[in-house]
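Recap from last week: sequence in, structure out.
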Amino acid sequence: MAIVLPFPAARRRGFICKQGARLADLPRREAEKHLAYQLRLQHETMARKGIDTAEIECQVGALETAIRCEIARNLVTYGSLARPIDDATVLQVIEHLRGEVRARGNQIEAQTVRLQALDRIERATGSRCITDTATMLKMGRDALYKWMNANRWIYRRARTETWVAHQERERAGLLGSVPYHYTGRDGSPCVKMQVLVTPKGLVRLAKLLGGQIDDQGTTA
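Predicted C-alpha cells:
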C-alpha cells in the first residue's frame, strides 16, 4: 500500500484567507477556540485518508502558522491594530510569522523526503537479514536484535542460538524465514532458518523506531 502524501496545507490560500479574516473579527478567546476546532477537523480528515501521523502533525502545524499570519495581516490592515501599531512593529510581526512559515515548510519538506523513501522501500522487492536492516536503519545490529526480541518480533529457541520470527509477524508480512546452509564445526553440512525483514517490515520498523533510512539500492 502506497504512502499518502497530501497537498501542502499551508498553500491552501483560499481556506487560509477565509479563516484569517473570520478569526480576526472574533474576540481572542473565541477565535482561539474556533481555530483549534478547525485544526482538529483538518487533522481528522487527513487521518481518515491514511496519511502518516508525523506528516499530519507537520501539515497541521504549518496550516496553523499560516492562519495566524493571515490573522495578523488582517488585524494590521483592517482591524484593531490598523492605527495604533507602528510600521516597524508591523514588519517585525510579519517577519516573525514568515520565519515560522519557512521553518514549518522545512519540516514538511524533510518529512516528505522521509515518507517518499519509506514508500520506495515498501514498493521494493526482496527481504533483508536483520544485520542489513540495522545498517539501513542506521543503528547497531545488537540494538536491533534486542529491540525486536523485546517487542515480540523474534525469539530464540530453547537451548539454541537460532533466532526465530514470531508467527504473528510473519502472518502480517513483516518478517519471513529462509533456510540458511552452513558447515558445522565437524565439517558436516548443516541448515537452520534465518529471519528476514520484508520491505513492509522495514517500513514498520522505521516508523516505530523513528530512525532515518538509507534506502540506496532499493527499486521502486
